[in-house]
Specification:
The complex is a heterodimer of chains A (about 300) and B (about 280). With about 300 residues, chain A is an all-alpha fold. Chain A folds into two domains: about 45 residues; about 230 residues, MetI-like fold (Orthogonal Bundle), CATH 1.10.3720.10. Helices cover about 75% and strands about 0% of the residues of chain A. Classes of the chains: A mainly alpha (about 300), B mainly alpha (about 280).
């Protein structure tokens, strides 16, 4: 009798162990790849940021925190890249969020033209940044075939070197990227708009609420979870901008459109013995992304209205 | 007759307030798609016409020569095109094979350290490739893999975002369904392929679509992971033919652009509703 219960519990344990083993086999490949290609490199990056070296020999000389001191106080490049990225991000956040709400409200009704508009606004999001950047750099170019100048000439506006001037280059990049992403974010807002129950609007109408008041007091608060999510996605996304700027201006003219990712790219492989500086820049970028996410959560979560 | 007239009048009266807004909408739509229209027609123009002022809005002399040009150039686009196809397809297949069992185990099975392991997935999801590429490059160089397509494929074999999304939708499948399948002696693989996947088709399609678009369009990663023309994808080809050697031959550049953009646009043309739904749904989540 006793013997029987022992073997039974033994058996049950063996079945359980086998089930655990099956589970581990299922998740093992995913976990191994994630550890090798994201978690481990992150640790490695921090380690590399304490050394001086290059791609062939990454650990030439131990530097301690010297690399951080270099990029934060001695070298101008990092600060310049940080400021440029900040300006770009601020502009993109304001433009994308306000226009995506306007577009979404504008396309809200179920009509054929609105379905068409959704597709038209959304297409640029699917197309490679490289392609978009090439098309727009031609539009802004100073060649006689540059469309922007040709168009403005119709109104008597003199030709400008849009991408070649440090005053306008960043504006061109912001215009291009706003055009590229607006349809996507408008779509997210639109599907949130459609999930707001009609009764709420009905009640507001019966209470004699005006359109603008309804929008401010009902629509916007009801959209706040999505707006909040958009804010985080757009800010962190713009801090990682690279492709479009690399094609359109490559950081120029001068360093007026140099952004953080370009700083890291430049210093990693294109300059002698500056791999550690690039890694320090990378760690800083990672810190900034974490801070933005935390800050956004802290400051906005209280104000967000969850349904 | 009079009745019908009245009806039309009423309809018109109802529609009229919409007219200014609709006209503005159409103008903005045209502005939005114009850059692509410009790309397409330039790809079919001769050089002289492409840079002519004032520009022509439709090719006067229609030509396919730009496509044959970039086909016959010393650096032909075929090599790059094949690289793009191989890399994108391998990533999607590998992700699928690795992601499905992992998402299933996280959603429906119990095991020790589940929380910590899922934490690994979430943390990995937050870490951007823009900072990890330096150590990954060094790793690839150490294993002598830089002269191959692997550096563009392996780092994306496990898709943290996909595992997370798929787990969410697996969770919504009732446990009873799985239990009864187990009673019918279904193996774990059968449960995944016969029950879970068919019920989560739309989530799968969304994830595959995201992977396709982001890896087909990838520029940064191949730029930092390759140093040999033989392993570069189509996105880098366009930059290549822009080089000083050839000058800015816009009609050739736009033809190469068309080849890069067409597969994505074809997908969008046939499934725009599904795609728009997928992207919007993902945003709401």
């Amino acid at each position: 009798m006793l013997n029987n219960t022992v073997t039974q519990s033994n058996l049950r344990r063996r079945i359980k162990l086998r089930s655990y083993l099956t589970s581990y086999v299922m998740i093992l490949p995913a976990i191994i790849f994630l550890l090798i290609f994201t978690i481990y490199p992150m640790g490695k990056l921090i380690q590399l940021s304490l050394w001086q070296g290059n791609a062939a020999n990454a650990y030439k000389k131990f530097q301690g925190l010297e690399n951080y001191r270099q990029i934060l106080t001695v070298r101008r490049e990092f600060k310049n890249a940080l400021i440029n990225t900040g300006v770009y991000t601020a502009a993109i956040v304001v433009l994308l969020i306000s226009f995506s709400v306007i577009f979404a409200v504008w396309m809200q009704k179920d009509r054929k033209i609105n379905n068409l508009a959704q597709s038209a606004f959304f297409v640029p999001h699917l197309v490679a940044s490289v392609s978009c950047a090439f098309i727009w750099s031609w539009i802004f170019s100073t060649d006689t075939s540059g469309l922007m100048n040709a168009f403005l000439k119709l109104f008597g506006v003199p030709a400008r070197n849009w991408l070649g001037s440090s005053k306008t280059a960043m504006i061109c990049i912001i215009v291009m990227n706003t055009w590229k992403s607006i349809g996507y974010y408008a779509l997210i807002i639109l599907s949130a708009l459609k999930s707001i129950p009609a009764e709420i609007y009905e009640a507001a109408r019966l209470d004699g609420s005006h359109n603008s008041k309804t929008f401010l007091k009902i629509t916007l608060p009801m959209l706040s979870p999505q707006l909040f999510m958009l804010l985080i996605t757009i800010t962190t996304g713009s801090f990682k901008v690279f492709d479009s700027i690399r094609i359109m201006t490559n950081g120029g003219p001068g360093t007026s459109t140099q952004v953080l990712c370009m700083f890291i790219y430049e210093f990693a492989f294109n300059r002698p013995n500056s791999l550690g500086l690039a890694c320090a820049g990378g760690v800083m970028l990672m810190l900034i992304l974490i801070l933005i996410t935390l800050f956004d959560f802290k400051s906005l979560e209280k104000k967000v209205h969850y349904q | 007759m009079a009745m019908k007239d009245l009806q039309i009048k009423r309809r018109l009266r109802n529609y009229l307030p919409n007219l200014p807004s609709d006209i503005l909408k159409i103008i903005i739509m045209l502005i939005f798609v114009f850059p692509f229209y410009w790309m397409f027609i330039t790809a079919f123009k001769f050089y002289n016409e492409a840079i002519q002022t004032p520009p022509t809005l439709w090719p006067v002399n229609f030509t396919f020569s730009n496509f044959t040009n970039i086909w016959e150039m010393e650096v032909s686009f075929t090599r790059y095109f094949i690289n793009s196809v191989v890399v994108t397809a391998s990533i999607i297949v590998m992700q699928l094979v690795i992601m499905v069992p992992a998402a299933y185990a996280f959603a429906k099975r119990d095991f020790p350290c589940k929380g910590i392991l899922f934490g690994v997935v979430l943390v990995a999801f937050m870490i951007p490739g823009q900072v990890t590429y330096i150590p990954i490059y060094l790793m690839m160089a150490k294993f002598k893999l830089i002269a191959s397509l692997w550096p563009q494929i392996l780092p994306f074999a496990a898709n943290a975002f996909g595992i997370f999304m798929l787990r969410q939708s697996f969770k919504q499948i009732p446990d009873e369904l799985i239990e009864s399948a187990r009673l019918d002696n279904a193996t774990e693989t059968q449960i995944q392929t016969r029950i879970m996947l068919p019920m989560c088709k739309s989530a799968m399609v969304t994830i595959a679509l995201f992977s396709f678009v982001s890896h087909w369009n990838a520029y940064f990663w191949p730029l930092v992971m390759t140093n040999n023309e033989k392993y570069r994808p189509l996105t880098m080809y366009i930059e290549k033919i822009k080089d000083a050697e050839y000058g800015l031959i816009w009609n050739n550049i736009m033809a190469a652009n068309v080849i890069l953009v067409i597969p994505v646009l074809i997908f969008f043309f046939f499934a725009s509703k599904k795609i728009i739904q997928a992207f919007a749904y993902n945003g709401v989540k």
